[in-house]
# Entry
Amino acid sequence: MTSSEFKPSWMRWPPNSCEVCTGWEKQDDWIGVCRRPESIHCGERTDARQRCFEYKRKADV
# Structure
């Protein structure tokens, strides 16, 4: 299994990760930029597989 196939438990439905966050801009398979001012990672490149407690789930998820 490659690292791009690995999904941590918090990404299983319903996910709690950058991938479903209103403030995350995807740039690559798992990489993007956090735009949530509440997050300590705001403005940083992040991996969607990381767990973030400041995320806000997108409405369509």
